[in-house]
Design a protein that fits this description.
Elements lengths: L3 H10 L5 E7 L6 H9 L8 E7 L6 H6 L5 E6 L6 H11 L4 E5 L3 E2 L4 H8 L7 E3 L2 E3 L5 H20 L12 E5 H7 L12 H11 L4 E3 L5 E3 L6 H21 L13 H12 L8 H11 L2 H21 L1 H4 L14 E5 L7 H12 L5 E3 L16 E3 L6 H5 L5 H10 L1 E2 L3 E6 L7 E2 L2 E6 L4 H4 L1 H5 L7 H23 L2 E4 L2 H11 L34 E5 L8 H9 L6 E4 L5 H7 L4 E4 L4 H9 L1 E6 L8 H7 L4 E4 L4 H4 L6 E4 L4 H13 L5 H8 L4 H15 L7
Parallel strand pairs: 1-2, 1-4, 2-3, 6-9, 7-10, 11-12, 11-15, 12-13, 14-16, 15-17, 17-18, 19-20, 19-22, 20-21, 22-23, 23-24
Antiparallel strand pairs: 4-8, 5-10, 6-8
Helix pairs in contact: 6-12, 9-11, 9-12, 10-12, 11-12, 14-28, 21-26, 24-27
Amino acid sequence: MSDPTARAAHRDRVDAPVASVIVPSYRGADRVPALLDSLAAQQDGTPPFEVIVVVDGVDDGTPAIVNAETRIDARAIVFPENRGRVAALNAGFDAARGDVLIRCDDDLIVPPGYISAHVRAHAGDGECAAVGLTRDIHNDSAYARAYGRAAAVASARRAGALPADQRWTLWAASCSVPRAVHDRLGGYSSAYTSYGWEDIDYGWRLHDAGIPIVIAGGADAEHHGPARSAAARSAKAFDSGSARALFHRRHPSAPLPTPTTPPGLWGRAVDLAARTMRRGPGALPAMADRAARVLPAPVARKIIAVSVEGAALAGHRHAERTALATTDHARARRPRIAIAHDYLTQRGGAERLVLSIVRAFPDAEVHTLFYEPDQTYPEYRDVGIRTSPLNRIGLFRRDPRLALPLLAPAASALRIDADLVIASSSGWAHAFGRTGAMAVYCHSPARWLYVADDYLGSAGRLSPQRLALAVLTAPLKAWDQRAARAADTYRGNSTVVRERIRRVYGIDAPTLFPPFSPSVADGEQTMPAAVTGWGEDGGHYLVVSRLQPYKHVDRVIAAFRDTPERRLIVIGRGPLRDQLRSDAPANVRLLEDLTDAEMRWAYAHARALIAASHEDFGLTPLEAGAHGIPTIALRAGGYLDTIREGTNGLFFEEPTPTAIRDAVDRFEQHPPFGADGIRAHAETFSEERFIRELHRLADQLAPPPPQS
């Protein structure tokens, strides 16, 4: 219904609301509920309104959420394929029945007077357009503390102080026009296919048509979707700079200055940064994110600002490289990359690895079966995460193993719309549905299918877990094999996993060692309260492990039972926690949920790390190594890749209390390992190397389109 006459006839047949709220949404299932809650909480006396959520080509559950809404008049329009934000906006405006058309992004939370404020702005004589100001809401993070929050405050201050003749530059996430104005002006311009500026283009067209733009008092909204890292912010700045160049070409008379380098040393720094970003933000923003984690906030703020300003300048200078306005394939200037992981419900090496993949592709969203923020790394709060419908069941989020019979169908039902999915998988993520290519980073073929006894440990012959696996193993193996063969390429995380993948799937998976950042040792150290009066002077042995049967933590504890002069700290969570605590002697402490500062203290004050399980990749020896601490490990699995005997550790041959105790005795008799050599060995497993290999893999499987 793009014809105004047809829409008017439609309004005559239907009780039309006063206002229509148009919400463009792309993968918005985790954002839309909060917006709907705030719209449903509008104050008494609010004029009748409708909400139209335009779902842009990915049914991630958003349509069901909208259509189940009963508190307000809400409906979903679903595109069968991704068409972009401009198409979503225009479709929503065309379908609207109200006389005041309010554009509202799906990552906003609006105040109780929001609808009334927008309607009131149009109640006077004469036509106008209205803007509701927004303020960025940042979760606590190094980026937020160093840059994001200060930038948000400065941006809000500038927006509120703009004179009337410049308010067209504020046209963005929350704004409204009368229907008559929209019908006369037309929709948003489809020339803009990257980040933003279709908004500012529309704002300029309003201004150029002589329509005043006012601030809708009382319509200020919280924006919960700002960039949450220097990498993401710089990527947006680069695209914004390119779109700004398009705006200049389309509207040469608009009083919008062309970006230039600032004067002085700062300008030289920004210009140098822009020169390094001719083809995109590159490595500088990732360096800025690392700086934010280790440097004082004022210093990190400057580094991030150089990255952001340099990216914006580079995007504008090299807009012709993006071909934003002139080529049909502009929308795909960079391949769309998504990340998949089994579930984010714990703090482990695999979950830490996914954070490195996020740093490699900061705009990518993470798709997973379950996400429990309080049980995994806090950095995930700053990442866009999509979950399966099973995530709504709290019991499953806390322990995904309870959902075992449901996980295969849930994994198969997920659909990821991307050119390339990088799947971090130990059994489920490699089977997620997708529209593009898939590269599987395999931590191990599913242990519960192929090494069930190792996985179940001491579980009895008639235990529920063993009985469930007995029933499910055959169909799950068939399902797992089909999923593995459907992937485009595999990578194994260690030599032993590469061999296991070859044996289980018949696939040769070149080894790509997981990333490791020696910066885990940087920062303050805090002694855990639980060791006060027991071991605050350090000198303890350390185990960092999930408390699962196959980790053999019970055997390490048994090895220390007869040596009361030695102390052992065990850090981890898992189903054996209560049993291990009840069996632990006085010289053993079991800790969990330590802060990063407490973890650094535990590593830095340890005499040695003990690693007794058959791991697919031995990450904890590298974490210990960053602190200059050696490892005593089982001669098996991934430890063969990460431990060089005599350099950063020594081995024992079998995971028994006797063998572990003998290895500790040998360690005590040896001269100390050199801390500098241990640290140097850890640094050979750098995150930079890992990210470089991922980018090379992405270029092979989802190369960017040729530039014209």
